[in-house]
Amino acid sequence: MQRQTTRGVALKAALMTGTLLALAGLAIKVSSRFSTKDQAALPIDPATDYEMALARFAQVQAQEEADASLNPVCHSKLLTHGRKVERAIILMHGMTNCPQQYVELAPLFYERGYNVLIPLMPCNGLADPNTDALKQVTATELRDCSATMVNIAQGLGDHVTFIGISVGGVMAAWVAQNRADVNKVVLIAPSFTVSPLLGVFLGKLVMYLFLIMPNIMTQWFKPFEGGLGHNYRGFATRGLGQMMRLGFSVYDAARTTKASAQSVLVITNAADPAVSNNITRQLVVRWQAGGLYHLDTYEFDAKYKLIHDIIDPDQRYQQTALVYPVLLDQITR
Length: 333
Fold this sequence. Notes:
With 333 residues, this protein is α/β, with parallel strands linked by helices. The chain folds into 2 domains: 1-33; 42-332, 3-Layer(aba) Sandwich (Rossmann fold), CATH 3.40.50.1820. Helices cover 41% and strands 12% of the residues. Residues 1-27 have low confidence and may be disordered.
């Protein structure tokens, strides 16, 4: 009996060891395939003057106009004073939304003398709100889009500001980490994970899970209610995995490398129901420890009960009368 018990224990131990080794091997394979360390800076190729910037933006416009599946209101937009001015600003929207998100905020910057570039994020802006296009987006595409728009903006203004909200805020984080030719970067409610409850460790586990499992569209189970006409009805888990991949690439890089942008502003919402402000705060600490001295933060008080998307005026429960003056004051100072 003792021998059988010993054998049983040994067999269980062997099976457990084999399972752990298999899981470890899978984890290594997955982490090497979907590394967060391969999203470093691209060669910088800025527009050298206003005419070059317009020519490059015209190429973006031509590609979008050739795509009949896009919602016309979601095309990339440029509000220009007809020449290179002192300040240019890039406004990057969030995932599932499009440049229409800034329909009321963008003119406020234009009125203050900015040339305003409002790009369309890859795989967003399609006319079909039930599309599954977001399963195709990659961290590399988000990175390349950010770099392309910074290159264009260099020909639009002597001082360049990059603003992004949510996934656009993650793209802004990449710009802050990698582009020294950007004068100011503003992260608004950056979405490093998919829940306020997820820290770095669990966030990375969810990221790997989303990247290896079959894609799931969230609208299959819980479509956005009262959705905007220019907004998708849900997310793709594969796209969310790629979003986190880009975000954690910045988080990991900040541990050993100083952020490149000249100035960074991080804006959070204490009542944010969608993102982890704790990870954002940890990134701020890493940037400060790495020598980024021109770094400011601002947090909207939880008492205002703001929604995650504090920009789009068409969102239900929106409070732009409260939010916009604060954003303008914080960003233009």
